[in-house]
């Protein structure tokens, strides 16, 4: 008979070890070397067997061993030290505490969080980024509250069939065994949220809390007694099921998430968030719930409440392709929102409207509900402005109000301990602050840097051997056939890593374009290359599984299997070894489909060099000395030819640049020119790729201004929100009659550089006043079709005109030679707009 459930019954910790329980309760142990050492010393074998999961380890360690530790002076002293360190970390003022006028708290919503492999609630980059965001916020003392869902099975575990086909397993996660705690209300009962479902059903969810250093992460779990069977399944899997399942997950995340925050703040006395940040559109319904709160609590209209909510909402988009956007049938959304009392469903549906009238678009709702929005790298910002330009008709894509903050990675999580120790020795901690410490790498000799790289590569090779062995056994091979696995990979050979999810745009198999050429690189007698590959395909994507099978079949060939391998079950625990140990991190997406990419940043922090298509972050920060850019065949429309060209460029780079440099050694065996690039990578990229840089950017560029706007809207019984809503109505009603009637220009002297052009424009304001608008002269380079590019603007000032007509006047500097063009336009203007494009209306001459 099989058990329905299993749980682990722990031995009670002796009183002397109570602090161990506190250390384990806070996930900070997962990125804190002294905590990890302490935990390992509890029982090194069990630590290994548990997959470095302290909860599991403590569940299995014997009472005798605990008794012994409770009498061991040395252990108790270390326990005391680590606990003191944690207490300081949690209570001392940090970077954020020195800022003036910063938000009292910030809510951060994401459908997935990748914090540690023992809390597998992530599938890829979006979740890992969210985890790194929380950790860096904790290090900086930023008062964030994370909100997500607790999935009963998380993302799947991957193994391979004998012929290389991806197999998926969903081991159920028992919340009791996870590093999370149930939130309890003041009366001791478990804290729950509830929201309406269609057909008068109710969805209940339990609130769990994971402690991520100083940051609480609230996770909602629908597997509770009060729910009917269908509702219990809502949080069964990450991105599971069909559209309705997913919509219900997103309603729970957005609406339930706001309710969970209210419950958490009440129980713990935490100040209510002034800013709500949604990591991708999935949590967008959080704005609807906040509108409902204001409409219900303060008798504002929907439109008035919308202004207040928008002011405090930040939306981050992560996809560069329309296909990546979350879209639902409008009817499905309408059916689910009908149960939200007090809100006009029609108005909510308008927020998600797009070109197709039958569709509700979560990204469009995100942009309409957030006064501030951003993409995740400079290039992705540009791509997003083009992709969403339709929402701002009349504006050039450059003016679409979507900025960018380039992603970053959490150094203490992703840097090898040896590298962190060198950094600490030379510069003190690099994790917090702006990362100036990376300049200290100059004090480290070539020899020491190279020794570090060799050590890390060696550790990766050991891990590859262990994993190849296990995976081969799992694929049905017998121990007797597996002698070869003990010597796969070579600790002295140039090692390339490629690991990521397997959607087609990431082109897992680009390196197989010319198999003979790849084989020649792997088997080169003087300058061989070895490649370690990993990645999961979405369970529903047979195309992706096909690519994996193709890769595995190539790597199974006894002629090359010692130099190339596909490791199943890519996760944080495996990724770490790759980032530490590879010499080169390979990334070859179809440009510009990688919004940012962060894996290459993690490799760079450990001294790996990037070899990548100029996409995402690499487009921004490749400088010719920190790695290699694979040239893209831009403009080649035949995808096969494009792949051929880009694969050819990749082989050429490896053969002619990368390998020769790696194997070019001085008399003491050090590849000095390679080490020079490693040093340059650490110095130049180190400070930029940090999640602490990213989070400080969010605080300064988005959270702080959003908190100011929000406070203005809320003050005085939402006076400014009411006023702004009325003003918007007035302006939008009048707008069809607003136009530029006439433009008169006078050249001040000749049309020469340094000259000036005086402009006078007559404008029809259709009842608006000159304070409601900004009249601008827009000028720049003009092409043969008179299209303007590289534009600048000058504000024209209203001038008195006796007959009651409206005139504006100003001067244009003639600051460029060649074809120069200008026009005049009218935009709405109000102190509480974040940008003049906000109402998405403009009248151009
Ligand atoms: C960093 C990371 C990712 C995201 O990397 P990309 O470069 O965006 O593909 C995905 N999975 C794991 C385990 C990671 O560590």
TrEMBL record:
Q: What class of enzyme is it?
A: transferase
EC number(s) of the enzyme?
A: 2.4.1.1
Q: Which family does it belong to?
A: Belongs to the glycogen phosphorylase family.
Question: What InterPro entries does the annotation carry?
Answer: Agluc_phsphrylas, Glyco_trans_35, Glycogen/Maltodextrin_Phosph, Glycogen_phosphorylase_DUF3417, Pyridoxal_P_attach_site
Q: Which PROSITE patterns match?
A: PHOSPHORYLASE
The organism's superkingdom is given as: Bacteria
Protein name per Swiss-Prot or TrEMBL: glycogen phosphorylase
Protein keywords: Allosteric enzyme, Carbohydrate metabolism, Glycosyltransferase, Pyridoxal phosphate, Transferase
Q: Give the signal peptide as a residue range, or say none if absent.
A: none
Q: Tell me where in this chain the DUF3417 domain is found.
A: 13-119
Required cofactor names: pyridoxal 5'-phosphate
Q: Function of this protein? A: Phosphorylase is an important allosteric enzyme in carbohydrate metabolism. Enzymes from different sources differ in their regulatory mechanisms and in their natural substrates. However, all known phosphorylases share catalytic and structural properties.
Identify the Pfam families for this entry.
Answer: DUF3417 (PF11897), Phosphorylase (PF00343)
> What catalytic activity is recorded?
[(1->4)-alpha-D-glucosyl](n) + phosphate = [(1->4)-alpha-D-glucosyl](n-1) + alpha-D-glucose 1-phosphate
């Amino acid at each position: 008979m099989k058990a329905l459930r299993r749980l682990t019954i722990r031995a009670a910790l002796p009183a002397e070890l109570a602090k161990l329980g506190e250390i384990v309760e806070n996930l900070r142990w997962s990125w804190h070397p002294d905590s990890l050492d302490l935990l390992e010393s509890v029982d090194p074998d069990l630590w290994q067997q548990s997959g470095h999961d302290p909860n599991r380890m403590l569940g299995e360690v014997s009472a005798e061993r605990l008794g012994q530790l409770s009498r061991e002076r040395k252990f108790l002293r270390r326990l005391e030290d680590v606990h003191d360190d944690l207490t300081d970390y949690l209570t001392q003022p940090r970077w954020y505490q020195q800022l003036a006028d910063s938000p009292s708290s910030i809510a951060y919503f994401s459908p997935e969080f990748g914090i540690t492999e023992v809390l597998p609630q992530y599938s890829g980059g979006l979740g890992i980024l969210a985890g790194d965001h929380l950790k860096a916020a904790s290090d900086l003392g930023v008062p964030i509250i994370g909100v997500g869902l607790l999935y009963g099975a998380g993302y799947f575990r991957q193994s391979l069939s004998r012929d290389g086909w991806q197999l998926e397993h969903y081991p159920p996660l028992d919340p009791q065994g996870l590093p999370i705690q149930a939130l309890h209300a003041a009366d001791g009962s478990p804290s729950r949220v509830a929201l309406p479902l269609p057909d008068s059903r109710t969805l209940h969810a339990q609130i769990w809390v994971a402690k991520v250093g100083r940051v609480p992460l609230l996770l909602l779990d629908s597997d509770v007694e009060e729910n009917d069977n269908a509702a219990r399944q809502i949080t069964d899997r990450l991105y599971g099921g069909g559209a309705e399942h997913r919509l219900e997950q997103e309603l729970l995340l957005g609406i339930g998430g706001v309710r969970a925050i209210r419950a958490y703040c009440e129980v713990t006395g935490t100040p209510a968030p002034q800013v709500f940040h949604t990591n991708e559109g999935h949590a967008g319904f959080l704005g609807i719930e906040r509108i409902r709160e204001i409409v219900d609590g303060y008798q504002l209209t929907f439109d008035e409440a919308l202004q207040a909510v928008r002011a405090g909402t930040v939306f981050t988009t992560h996809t560069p392709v329309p296909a990546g956007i979350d879209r639902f049938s409008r009817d499905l959304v309408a059916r689910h929102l009908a149960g939200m009392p007090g809100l006009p469903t029609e108005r909510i549906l308008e927020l998600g409207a797009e070109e197709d009238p039958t569709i509700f678009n979560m990204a469009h709702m995100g942009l309409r509900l957030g006064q501030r929005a951003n993409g995740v790298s400079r290039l992705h910002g540009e791509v997003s402005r083009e992709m969403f330009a339709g929402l701002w008709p009349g504006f050039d894509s450059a003016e679409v109000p979507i900025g960018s903050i380039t992603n970053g990675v959490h150094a203490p999580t992703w840097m090898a301990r040896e590298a962190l120790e060198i950094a600490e020795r030379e510069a003190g901690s690099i994790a917090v602050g702006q990362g100036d410490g990376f300049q200290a790498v100059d004090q480290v000799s070539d020899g020491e840097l190279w020794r570090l790289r060799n050590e890390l590569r060696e550790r990766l090779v050991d891990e590859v051997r262990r994993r190849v062995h296990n995976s081969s056994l799992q694929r049905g091979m017998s121990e007797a056939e597996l002698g070869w696995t003990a010597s796969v990979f070579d600790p002295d050979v140039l090692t390339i890593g490629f690991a990521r999810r397997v959607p087609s745009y990431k082109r897992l198999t680009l390196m197989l374009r010319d198999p003979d050429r790849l084989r020649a690189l792997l088997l080169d007698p003087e300058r061989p290359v070895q490649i370690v590959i990993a990645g999961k395909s979405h369970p529903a994507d047979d195309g992706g599984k096909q690519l994996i099978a193709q890769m595995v079949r190539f790597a199974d060939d006894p002629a090359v299997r010692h130099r190339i391998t596909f490791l199943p079950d890519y996760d944080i625990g495996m990724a770490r070894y790759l980032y530490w140990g590879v010499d080169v991190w390979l990334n070859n997406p179809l440009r510009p489909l990688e919004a940012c990419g962060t894996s290459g940043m993690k490799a760079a922090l450990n001294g790996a060099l990037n070899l990548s298509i100029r996409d995402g972050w690499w487009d921004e920060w490749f400088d010719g000395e920190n790695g290699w850019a694979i040239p893209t065949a831009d403009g080649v429309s035949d995808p096969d030819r494009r792949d051929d060209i880009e694969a050819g460029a990749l082989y050429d780079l490896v053969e002619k640049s990368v390998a020769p440099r790696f194997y070019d050694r001085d008399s003491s065996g050090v590849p000095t020119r390679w080490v020079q690039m490693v040093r340059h990578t650490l110095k130049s990229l180190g400070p930029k790729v940090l999640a602490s840089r990213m989070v400080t950017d969010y605080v300064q560029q988005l959270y702080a201004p959003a908190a100011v706007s929000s406070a203005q809207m809320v003050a005085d019984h939402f006076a400014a929100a009411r006023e702004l809503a009325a003003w918007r109505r007035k302006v939008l009603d009048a707008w069809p009659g607003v136009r530029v009637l006439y433009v008169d220009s006078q050249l001040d002297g000749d049309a020469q550089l340094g000259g000036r052009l005086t402009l006078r424009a007559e404008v029809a304001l259709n009842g608006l006043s000159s304070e409601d608008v900004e009249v601008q002269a827009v000028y720049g380079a003009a092409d043969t079709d008179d299209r303007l590019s590289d534009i600048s603007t000058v504000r024209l000032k209203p001038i008195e005109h006796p007959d009651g007509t409206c005139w504006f006047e100003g001067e244009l500097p003639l600051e460029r030679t060649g074809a120069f063009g200008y026009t005049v336009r009218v935009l709405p203007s109000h102190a509480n707009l974040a940008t003049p494009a906000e109402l998405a209306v403009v009248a151009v001459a």
